[in-house]
Amino acid sequence: MLSVIVAPEQPSERGLILVVDDDASTRTLVSRWLQKEGYEVREAPSGEGALEVVAALTTPLDCVVLDVMMPGMNGVEVVQRLRGIPAVADVSVLLLTAHATGDEDVVAGMDAGASDYMFKPFSGPVMVARVRALCRRTQHARELKAKLLEAEEHAAIDPLTNLYNRRQFERTLTEEAARARRHQSPCAILLGDLDYFKTINDTHGHAEGDRVLTYFSSKVQSILRGEDRAFRYGGEEFAVILPGADVEGALRVDRRLREALARDPYVFAKGHSNVINYSAGIACAQGASDFTFKGIVEDADRALYAAKRNGRNRTELA
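User: That's the sequence. What structure does it adopt?
Assistant: Structure tokens below.
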């Protein structure tokens, strides 16, 4: 039976702590010290209970104060399990261990990924100070990870069109190729190139050309399914990866894009409007085929150039 202290309506600014100990008096003592300092506390009487509490959390966990010696799942096993859960893999863990079994428990716990330890009986103020430091460590790691993820996301985005860039295209298609082979499912790509884009730049200037690319990219994004991804492949070239799509599915996406462009022609700065057309090549790999990154890109590229040779403003199949 879990013993859980009811959370305040608003999460504590200091942090959220999980206290895990099979001894109720120790749990109460630790919790009272931490709550006195403004921390929000959850309690669990066992390792199994701790994992249940973690699974039910809706706010970030900052530290776990964990007894080593418990019936059933001991503290070392709990640490190992926590390190395998992405949401709490970086959360700091303070081990509490008895003097009688101290060194061996501490070594095993630190090897498993614990952050610090204390022997029982402990000083309340010292315990709070260590938890405070561990919470700062967790929060700093969380902030750093968020900044790295944001930086990676920005590095994958073309700043003009807000589509993913070519580097991300290569990474995504490699992953989708592996998934298609593994699950024996189809995957299609559409490579496109805006028709007469050089003429737009020469006639209206590069700033207008950039606005055309932005307009076109917004149309591409507007017709994609949730699992589809669009990329700026080159200057005026774009690519769309369509997981799970066969040739007919890719042609439907192509048709939706052409219809969207026809419904809303681009208005140039000088006031006149034109439908922005493109040529495209579609390649589709079935799960049973030899689906490689290089092969499907080359197939789509050949189909794209066939569309250019055959009059532009059309789509050819590989």
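Residues 16-150 form a domain with the Rossmann fold fold (CATH 3.40.50.2300).
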